[in-house]
Backbone:
């Protein structure tokens, strides 16, 4: 059942007669308001966290190294919103299948597994199970999220050789507007609904978690600022955080959320799908809410680089990898895929954790920190309560 945690704004938790009563109190420092109290007629016995790197929580907490090689390279972290929700629910069975870098096609291939698959990088032991509900973040990789931030913000060209920031933004806009986006999204959600209905019946639900805007896009205070890019990544065409760039990247996040909601309306049974919007929770916690972007600022809820730009050892290590060393920033170069980037670094790093961390750092930028995941979990937890329970009382807190 739910557990009472000091960091959670819960007024009370009562369990009686196979029912769970949960009262959500006002957050500390807010004016006390009536809290919603839900009764869950049946404690969830099994659920599954699916999706991309926002669901796997790359960079948030500790790396969960269990399962097959492919599972480890999903970069599941223990302070992602999924594990945080499980710590509240305390369900007997929690299936953690979310995987960094996965597109619609790869989610369909790898995250509905009933048995382990292989070989090597694709080897997975994390199974979908028979969940009563699933949570999922999806769509960011299908529009080129990694390419956007590495090229436009950090000036890193490994994934987009020969492309300008404008090229990458236009490509993402086109992908969001493409019928292929709706087709891929709907296929994933319909697959989840069909498998869920087969497992537990029509009470099965899918909680689709959206994305947050990255920037305070109105303030001029960081117009000339840049986010730190390590020198060993050979940055150039390094973007400054102009209002125009911030507005363009925020608009893509908003457009992606709109496309996701459009897709939900087109699935086989929209009543079984709940869209979870947490963007407003990130207000005052975005890049540029303070004058100088600071990777150690606890009030900014997105990750960015905080490494030594003059780390010669890291540069020497990356330059020792032929696939990276031989890549050049021109259209004739074959860009690295995210999977290839992880693999070549892992193969070269072996047991050297510091070297492997270079790969994690490069793909965890612009992902939520633990505080951000906790904010997502708070909203998601209430969505689950509303979907499976009924409001039975209003309790005022003091």
Residues:
């Amino acid at each position: 059942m739910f557990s009472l945690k000091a960091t959670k704004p819960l007024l009370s938790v009562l369990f009686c007669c196979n029912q769970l009563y949960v009262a959500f109190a006002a957050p500390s420092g807010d004016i006390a308001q009536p809290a919603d109290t839900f009764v869950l007629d049946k404690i969830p016995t099994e659920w599954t966290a699916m999706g991309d790197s926002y669901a796997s929580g790359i960079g948030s907490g500790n790396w969960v190294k269990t399962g097959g090689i492919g599972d480890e390279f999903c970069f599941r972290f223990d302070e992602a919103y999924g594990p945080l929700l499980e710590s509240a629910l305390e369900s007997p069975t929690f299936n953690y299948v979310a995987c960094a870098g996965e597109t619609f096609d790869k989610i369909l291939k790898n995250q509905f597994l009933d048995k382990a698959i292989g070989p090597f990088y694709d080897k997975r032991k994390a199974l979908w199970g028979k969940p009563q509900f699933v949570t999922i973040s999806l769509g960011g990789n299908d529009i080129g999220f990694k390419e956007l931030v590495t090229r436009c913000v950090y000036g890193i060209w490994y994934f987009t050789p020969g492309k300008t920031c404008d090229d990458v933004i236009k490509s993402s806009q086109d992908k969001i507007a493409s019928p292929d986006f709706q087709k891929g999204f709907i296929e994933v959600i319909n697959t989840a609904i069909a498998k869920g209905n087969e497992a537990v019946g029509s009470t099965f639900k899918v909680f689709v978690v959206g994305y947050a805007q990255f920037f305070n896009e109105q303030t001029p205070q960081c117009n000339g600022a840049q986010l730190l890019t390590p020198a060993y990544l050979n940055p150039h065409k390094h973007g400054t955080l102009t209002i125009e760039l911030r507005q363009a990247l925020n608009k893509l996040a908003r457009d992606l959320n709109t496309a996701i909601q459009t897709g939900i309306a087109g699935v086989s049974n929209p009543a079984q799908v709940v869209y979870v919007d947490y963007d407003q929770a990130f207000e005052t916690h975005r890049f540029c809410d303070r004058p100088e972007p600071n990777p150690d600022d606890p009030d900014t809820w997105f990750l960015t680089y905080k490494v030594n730009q003059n780390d010669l050892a890291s540069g020497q290590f990356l330059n020792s990898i032929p696939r990276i060393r031989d890549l050049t920033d021109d259209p004739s170069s074959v860009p690295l895929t995210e999977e290839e980037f992880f693999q070549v670094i892992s193969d070269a790093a072996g047991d050297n954790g510091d070297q492997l961390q270079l790969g994690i750092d490069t793909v965890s930028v612009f992902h939520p920190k633990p505080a951000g995941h906790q904010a997502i979990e708070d909203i998601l937890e209430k969505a689950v309560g509303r979907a499976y329970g009924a409001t039975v009382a209003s309790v005022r807190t003091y």
